[in-house]
Every structure is written in structure tokens, then in C-alpha cells.
Input
Amino acid sequence: MNSPTRTVRSLAMGAVTLLLTVGIATAHHSTAMFDMQHTVKVTGTVTQFDWTNPHTFIWMDVMNNGATEHWSVEGMSPNYLSRNGWSRHTLKTGDKIDMEVHLLKDGRKGGFCSTVTLADGKTLRNLPGPRT
Amino acid sequence: MRSMMAVALLGAIVTTTSALAADGTAGKAKLPGTTWQSIAQLPDWSGVWELDWRAGAGRGGAGMPKLTPESQAKLDKYRVDQKEGKNAQTNTANCDPPGMPQIMTQPYPVEFLFTPGKVTVAIEAYSQMRRIYVDGRPHADDPDPTYQGDSIGHWEGDTLVVDTVGFIDDSLIMPGIGHSDQMHIQERIRRVSPDVLEIQRTISDPKVLTEPWKVTLTYKRHTDWTLKEYICAQNNRDSADSEGRADMNLKR
Output
């Protein structure tokens, strides 16, 4: 993994995601500090997984051009995630993961987690996805 | 000595109970939901109930309230502020619960508990609780403003009718729209099918709204869920400054 590749979702899918995101995320704080229109793909190694309210946090080391970056990525609450396929055991220190992230607008290494793909190829949504 | 004290205590309890019955509560005991026997006749609202955002219950599908020009100007400013990176959600970002009415439209479930004379709404978000007295009492005289307000209610058949007044200044009708000391919330709550609960909610506030705002909220039942703990202060890394700008704390 070198520089993150920007992934632009289709407009229709993005609109649905944004609607649900706004509804759910405004429960606690707004998503103004994140770029909710786009995600980037990041590959890293988990260094810590906070299974806490009001938000979970995934701390990971990301190699970028030979240098290690320390990333912090916020996620939905344990209350929400535990009803949607996650548990506090989903991630553990040392796990290699691929993540789609809505980046912090201020340029720091972090953001809001959209999806996580585990080493076995299984992808877990963090933010709710489009529903029918 | 100990047994004498027990007898004396029992006597005091009997006396207290008699006094309560004598002051008029005996007549109110016939109101639905005021005795365990009458609670058994009430509809089954067991399980926990999750707001169904897809049923138009969310803020987007519920339509907008009709605002006075002054309130509209405040909402317009809120939206401009959002574009400038101020999220204007300082209170909840700092873990202050939203209060009524927004505590009823959170992405976490609620649970209804029936005990004699009272319906308690246990709310997962922010670990909150509403108490709705159904024993025939009037509103508190000049209630202290609170997050959930002062709620009284009564049963009309299978419908719980709730009337709430007395809210803290900080609670919002919806994001960007505050309320005055005249906000008044009425709810008609009933189970419309085995797994669907409906709240017909009317918010009145003549200083903020030009007409009462009516919304129907729909909740779906989850019999296999339980309410979970939600302590916002546990690990809040997104607190906001005085202008509502949240700043994600990345320090370990």
C-alpha cells in the first residue's frame, strides 16, 4: 500500500448513504469534520481497538512510502455494531485490515470508518450501507 | 425490641397506606394502568422498539415544521454555520443528552415498562429515562425545566395519551430549531400491528412554530434485543467548542 487511492461512489449510492449517515450520526455529533462524500482505501495493522461509547476507535499503523503512519479511525458505537455483525473480538492487535475511510478534512491521519475487510476476505460494514 | 420496632414500622406503613387511600387516590385506582390487575389488560408492548427511519420517521421524511420568521432566520444561520464547519451540536457532542423531543428519535431502541400509575420509557441513547404518570395527577405546579419534561398521561383503550411540558432551554425541536418556554408535546402511542408501534406526536410552540407540528413516528419491535448501556462520557473524543466545532482527539 502506498498512497491511498480515492474511491468515488456512484452518485445514487452516495446519496442514500449520506441520508442514512446524516440521520444516524447526528445522534451524537455532526459529520462536518469528515469528508462524507468520498472514501479512501487504507491498508494497515491494528494496534488497538476501542470498543467504547459513544464511538469505537480503530488505531492502526499504515505503511506509506516506507514510513509508518499512526492512524485513528472512528466508528459506530458498540450498541449499533453489536447488532450488525461486530463484536469486541472482531479486531485484535496485529490484525491486517483493509479499510474504506471518510478522511478527516483537517489532514490528520484519521477519519470515520465505512468498511473493514479482514485478512480472510470478509468485509464488515461500519456505517450503514444503502438499504432497500 | 427488634420485633416491637417491626410492629411499629408495619403500623406506620398501614397508617400511611390508609392515609393515601383517604386522600382521593382510591378513586383514581380505577384508572387503567394504576393497578397490577389493570396493567394485565393493557396491550403487550414488551420487547424493545427501534425507530424505523425508512418509514419516514426520520427527520428527512417527517416534513418540516412551519416556523416563525425569527425561528426561520435562526435555522438559516445554523445551516450557514454548518457549511463553515461549525456543527452547532455542541451539547450532544459534549455528551449532554438531547432531551425531549429528540431523545425519542435516536438510532437506539427504547423500552416501555408498566408499573402501577406509571409508564417508564427506558431509552438506550445516553441511558435516559422518561416517567409518564398515568395515575390521574395534573402537571406539577410550575415544574422545574428538565431534559424530558413533566409528563402525565392516560389510557384511551389501547392508546397511551401523553402530555409533556417544562423543558430545559437547551433541548431542540430539531437540529437548528430551539424552543420557547411554551413548548408543549402531545403523543398518542399505540401498537398498530404486532411488531409496529406508532407515536403520533404534536409539538406546539406559538413563539417558534406558526402551527403545531404533527409527525408520525414508527418503531419496530425486536423481541431478541435488550437495551444496552450507553455512557457517552466513556470515550468521547469528539467534544465541541463553544461554536460547535467538534475536534477529534487523536491522542492515545
Helices of chain B lie at 2-28, 36-39, 69-83, 90-93.
